[in-house]
Amino acid sequence: MKRFAVALIMIVASFALSGVTFHKPADAQPVRKYSPSCGYTIVEYGVGIDCNGDTVRIVKKNGAQVLAYR
How many CB atoms lie within 10 A of CB 14? Predict the structure, then answer.
């Protein structure tokens, strides 16, 4: 009877602990590193949007896309 009780307690404990997770809480925000903005976001090849929301022309220069008026 003692073996049966110990086995039953082990089974119940394993079911109780099977749903436990040891991860970070979901509401914890990751630390964001600061990265300086280059002033525009590339939407497609040759077209971008600057920080004011205006469409700007982008040209390829030395293998990178830069603003056309710089």
Answer: 9
Residue 55 β-bridge partners = 49
- The pTM for the full model equals 0.40
Q: Does 12 reside within a domain?
A: no
Domain encompassing residue 69: 39-70
How much of the chain, in percent, has pLDDT values that exceed 70? 76
* Residue 62: inside a domain: yes
Work out how many domains the chain is built from and give that number: 1
Q: Give residues with Cβ within 8 angstroms of 50, minimum separation 6.
A: 39, 40, 56
Residues 6+ apart with CB under 8 A from 48: 40, 41, 42, 55, 56, 57, 58, 65, 67
* Pairwise CA distance, residues 66 & 45, whole Å: 11
